[in-house]
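SAMPLE LOG
Freezer: B-3
Tube label: C17
Construct: single chain, 82 aa
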Amino acid sequence: MQIAQQLQDRRGNVLHHDEHWSSMSAEQKMALYSLHRYGYRLLFVRHLPSGPLAIIAQQNRLSTIDRYGEVEHDPKIQLREQ
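STRUCTURE (predicted):
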């Protein structure tokens, strides 16, 4: 199981939304754009050896978008409590 950690917890500073957006692949941006009308929002992007992994949410429901734009609506990730 992957554990997604908030960047502010790991690095001590919060990245701006634009920095997360710019680190996404074009396929991820297109996928998120199409999901935005359903209320999905970008939380952050994790940089993994396999490429960027966008963590998105619709209210309290988490999903991920891999570098190819494939959306996983039931990912096996866990966020750290703040």
